[in-house]
């Protein structure tokens, strides 16, 4: 038994026994090789199903939004940042949560298990930023020379190539909305694509409508996205949807010096107004 | 039964010959099936993808016959994800303005080459729903009837394949017009229907195979069936009361991980639910249908705002109950799952229908 897994089980079991929480959200082993599934333990015995490995690719903050119980949650760096985000946006209260922080050395790419996932390779917040207990000693954070090299490459394209790039990106989209639904930020009771009065977006396999969905979803995530990669982990068609959100992450960093989900006392930049906000775009 | 031998060196010539009489469809690399690519350096670009998809073949394109699995089933060839049904004009100077009329769709003979036996069975199950004594869905029926299905037996089942548990098999013939079996340098073609014979005639494939070919099919078939190790129980589903399963205590646990995306239903070869939309641009108006998904919060949302399946757990239950119980009870043709394993492979949160089916099948309510 991996010691981290054992430690997670022990902590989860203890907080259930002590009545600190009513449920613990974590990962259980999947039915296929290299898969895990989000799992909820309600009894100390059920915590034996928790595991921790290099395939815990989804973001568990997605499973606590709007819940009323006292919840224990297992959180790697990105999960913890989305928990912060959820608290700041009033989707759950800090008092409801008992956060079991898990230092993360990156999840692997399912398609090539010897390499880290793209987003994990450039991650600089591997340790949880908010926790009640840590399941292990913090890991060393990565120092990334140029974390947005990929975004810069797209920025450098001429208009036509850029448009072609994004058009191409979405040709295989089947509008299953797995990217949206795996995202802890996407908690709107009715998503704009599902509104029927007025209906903002057409519902067919129409290129313009598909692009509209992806572009608007990305903008809804501006200044909130933690680049956790759950969207890409969920996409059945392997679409690189982070190409949209990463550009906005870069903008948030450059314009507002902002990285999402690091501080429970600060609201996201597009949520607030400051007289010294960058306003070059209206000059 | 007639069995034809097709040497692989004759294959492309025959396929080309058949193009004179049939529109051809088959699995091709997704990167070869779209327009010109412009996504240099994009690691997830379809142009670099080795994913296969069922599409209409271009004049110089041939179906991949190497036994590839596709993320999406071929159901879209008969039942497109977005399908125009009716159209009209809003121009009041035109006679019949504002009167919806059926769009002019090409239903000339077509052939799907390389469809897997479980997918062909899946289409027969969907057909039960779209072609009933009371209702006949013209869009489905016209496309289905226009199509000749040239199947490719599954010599090497994938790890996800559990078709033998679900009334199908790697060499199943249901829903097929011809079953091709890859036998090294040749295909052995089992002629199942007259439609299938007509296709082989059009392609000029006519060498009758001998007894040994039939024996070879049996040998390969036995080996393929043996290679499927997944065992899913369905035997108790029929006698179980609907409400007992509906009220069973396990649904919350099954549904917990679900994110209510449409992946399982969209990759599924038997999911047939659709949603109808009208769109108007300028003076022209079109009514079309799109695949719907019981996983979506909009599914069965009433005009009043009430949704009988307003909660995630109710939607998840609906999917499995429809596939594994309601359909079985209604048509008595087995479950509405053919064991292709696509949803098992693609579900982002690893909800595994094999597990769910076993849980439902082994459930004994407390008396």
Brief overview:
The complex is a heterodimer of chains A (283) and B (367). Helices cover 31% and strands 9% of the residues of chain A. Chain A has helices at residues 3-17, 77-88, 118-121, 149-155, 159-169, 178-181, 207-220, 230-234, 242-256, and strands at residues 23-29, 36-41, 71-75, 97-101, 133-134.
Walk me through what this model shows:
The complex is a heterodimer of chains A (283) and B (367). With 283 residues, chain A is of the alpha/beta class. In chain A, strands 2-1-3-4-5 form a five-stranded mixed β-sheet. Chain A folds into two domains: 132 residues, no CATH class; 134 residues, no CATH class. Chain B is α+β, with helices and mostly antiparallel strands. Chain B has two domains: 183 residues, no CATH class; 136 residues, no CATH class. Helix content of chain B is 31%, strand content 19%. Chain B has twelve helices and twelve strands. In chain B, strand 8 and strand 9 form a beta hairpin. The relative contact order of chain B is 0.15. About 3% of the residues of chain B have low confidence. At the A-B interface, strand 2, helix 5, helix 6 and helix 8 of A face helix 9, strand 11 and helix 11 of B.
